[in-house]
Amino acid sequence: MSAANSAGLASPELFVLQDEEGPILYAPLAGLIARANATAIQAALAFARDPSSYDAMDKDQRFVVDELRERGFFASHTRPSHDTDFRPTQVTLFPTNRCNLRCSYCYAFGGEGGGNGEPLTTMRFEVAQRAIDLIARNAKERAAEGAPIHNFLVSIHGNGEPFCAFDLIREIVFYGQDVAEELGVPAVFNAATNGVLSEEQLDFVVANFGSINISFDGLPAFQDANRPTANGRGSFVAVDRTMRRLGEAGVNFGIRTTVTANMVDSMADIVSFVADNYPGLEQLHFEPVWECGRCKKSSNAMPSSKVFIKRYLEALAVGQERGVRLVYSGARQDMLVDSFCKVSSGSFTVTPTGDVTACYEVSYATDPRSKRFFFGRFDARKGDFVFDEQKLKELSSLNVHNIRYCDNCFCRWHCAGDCAAKVLDGIDLHEHHGSVRCEINRTLTLNQIQRRLDWRPPDE
Hints:
TIM Barrel; 11-stranded mixed beta sheet
């Protein structure tokens, strides 16, 4: 199958795609899809380019245009945008860069100071307090203004394993709960973890967290080889215990599997394994490894786009049979966005040192990308955060409206130019020319479109 990136494009909002069964007319902003023959496609494109061409069309062409117009293919729709008013109602806290694992592909050199010799450190509680105060206050104010804000969200993540700072996490959660009660705005807590947790930590997670995301490489052998403990031992047994406990307790949890070249052929087997062992699983997220961080010093490599696509689709079929929901970050046809993540629209992530970054993957001041993504810090003298308004303005521009390379791509409002930290590494926005992920994004998004076309109600 293939997707036409620009050929047959009538306007930025009407696209012609192609697969084995023929052309597909796609209007992403309207959420409309139709199979059509060449004559119908020609008429639709002509009318989209110039509505006055309708008068010169024959009866059959007019019928096609009338049918498509009635269904909304030619209607104007508002393009996705984002709020440039920086008043976040959620924060991601990185409690520590310490880590109990030494994953072979870790983007942040977890437990090793980012690979740049930065000291291992833990966030000061005061920093977390002020971050929670800020988002809780914003949530209350926005709700009073009529915005659809019902809570504030505290996410625990890290350039290390966050639960290596367990005492701090407990303080963070208890403080957030107190603030929620005081302001009358509910607090929600979630976390990303490597899953190597003690019984005490698991008890706390079950009691206090709404959802958990576990980094897990899908099969025991891959987990032990790719994600060993700091002393070189396997980590599967510990992570397996964590996921079974979460499932038994009814805690929503997902798995994030990093796919390397040496494990890509086992993706379908991974789906079967998690289906057999973790019935409480909410979703399985496959992501091809990006060659950065510790990955550059290990034998791990990114699988080819074609092989990843093939194996992902095989795994998807198994997931549909076994009741496992599969996701990949760049294929999300059900979403209309102008930015891949919140990097340009109010991301508020605080590193262990109190720096504020717009990107999870850029968490050290020594990272050259910090010049673009760091936009604030905790000022100990003021006892509060200070933000660089100019940096916020520059970050706001990192959206697909400003990426000329994406103008004629049908994924424009879905992947929205993809991950800025990856595709803009060392270049300016106007130099964005896609990446090896573009083929994956387009092909898997086209597959989602095809599955919508093939869907039928159960009774038909």
